[in-house]
Amino acid sequence: MGTSDQELTALADKVFASSPTVASASEQVRTLAERAPLAEELANLAFRDKNQTAWRLLQNGIFSLPMFKVTSGAKINDRRRPFFRGDLVSAGIRDVVWEVEEKHVPKLQPPGPLTGEAAAEFIEAEFRKRSVQHHPLFAYLGDTKMNPSQERAAVLAYLHSVMVRIRTVHRSIMLVQLPMEFHDCIKLAILLVDELGGGELDKAHAQQTALDIEKWGDKVDWHAPVESTEMKAMLNWNLRTVTHADTLWSYTGIFCVEWNSYLELRAALLALRKRGIGDDKMKVLVSHGEGAPYDKDKHAFTVRQELGRRIETPADCAQVYAGIAYHQSLYHAFFEGEFAKLRRSVESAA
């Protein structure tokens, strides 16, 4: 007999119960020792047993931990930001959960013993095949007959979706670079500099998104909550990979972040250009999506090269292959919901 939804909710409540932020380190360790077995139990139900209720409770719980907020930095009542240190309970719970999740990532085997640049070329090709650039949302954006009100609703629905996610892109890039060796960090620093507009606010990509939305007559809520559990799951996994202690995992994570930014937003750029929409009304899509077969600045290509340098064995290649496939499965899962929301926006504007 399976665990009831009520029992699962009670279990999740114990795992993710608030703990005092002023607790001493030793007290936090004792609290974590009590909760870790419960977190592992919930994670096994979610990832090993594929219990959807457990999965949703887990993703929502992890996302709500005081470690990484998907906003521009919402004002709170105190000055604590316990991301890197200061909250051993949250850090321990997420690591216990993520270890179980990683253990159950479906294994994939590349066609032959690939390493180095050959492995990177294979990973790029597989990512392109699995990317949401092929999602029907973009055919809908490019080909569906719409009146001006519907077109505006469609563009705004998509840009607002981009806004929620782009708020985390620069943080993912930043986090993956913090523990890097100096010379490696220099190679990828341009990604962060570009994302933040080289220090110019209006060139920063999140700000470009906000300005694009304003050009369509709407406003941005920089602190809008993430409502979709599926999107939370993808963002949780982004954070898991880019901060992973195994640098091959962290490079896999930043590869997925950078390549999603390029391929998805390029698909949107081409679809809206097909409708006759000017580049001046979608600058963020131009910034991320202009250029082929790589973005105009070749940032995606640079990340692919750096990833290839770290694929030293066929086992490494298999790990990266499984990692990108799992990431894209999470991406497609939340994209279905975004497509449904976009269609509803268009229909209501008829």
Concise overview:
This protein has 350 residues and is mostly helical. It has 14 helices and no strands. It is globular, with a radius of gyration of 21 Å.
Describe this structure in words.
The chain is mostly helical. The longest helix is centred in the C-terminal third of the chain and has 35 residues, at 314-348. The protein is 68% helix and 0% strand. The chain has helices spanning 5-15, 25-48, 52-64, 88-103, 116-130, 136-143, 148-177, 182-195, 205-215, 229-242, 247-274, 283-289, 299-310, 314-348. It is built from 14 helices and no strands.
Largest sheet: none
SS field, number of helical segments: 14
Output the helix-strand order. Answer: HHHHHHHHHHHHHH
Structural class: mainly alpha
Strand count: 0
The Cα radius of gyration reads 21 Å
Q: Determine the strand fraction and express it as a percent band.
A: under 5%
Q: Mean pLDDT score, rounded?
A: 92
Which word captures the global form? globular
- Percent of residues in helices comes to 55-70%
Residue runs with pLDDT of under 50 for 5 or more positions: none
The N- and C-terminal alpha carbons lie at a distance of 49 Å
Which secondary structure elements does this structure contain, and how are they paired or packed?
Layout: H1 5-15, H2 25-48, H3 52-64, H4 88-103, H5 116-130, H6 136-143, H7 148-177, H8 182-195, H9 205-215, H10 229-242, H11 247-274, H12 283-289, H13 299-310, H14 314-348
